[in-house]
Amino acid sequence: IYEDGLMPADTFKGIMDVYFGGDMEASVGLAGQSSGLIDEVKTAKQIIDETVTEFFEITARLGAVAAAKSF
After folding, report:
1. CA dihedral sign, ordered 51, 54, 58, 59
2. What is the dihedral of CA 19, 22, 28, 34, to 10 degrees?
3. Buried b (16+ CB within 10 A) or exposed e, 16-49
């Protein structure tokens, strides 16, 4: 792909098998599209703690909206 400068038309025909079947040889695996969004290195614990905290904050807001029937 690098040398030719393009991908063949059937490059992604097995993409579902890569992501949902675990067959890493079925197609090219896409990576890097969101790497530019990384601005710090965190431990797995930090990521999980932040995700759980954000979940509870969001569900609390949604609960308040539902209780007020203002959606």
Report:
1. positive
2. 40
3. eebeeeeeeebbeeeeeeeeeeeeeeeeeeeeee
Is pLDDT above 70 for 40? yes
Q: Tell me the C-alpha distance between 67 and 62, whole Å.
A: 9
The pLDDT value recorded for residue 41 is: 95
| Identity of the residue numbered 20 | F
Q: What is the mean pLDDT of the chain?
A: 86
Contacts of 34 (CB under 8 A, 6+ apart): none
Q: Are 35 and 62 in contact, with CB atoms under 8 Å apart?
A: no
Can you give the pTM of this predicted structure? 0.49
Beta strands (DSSP E) in 1-71 are none
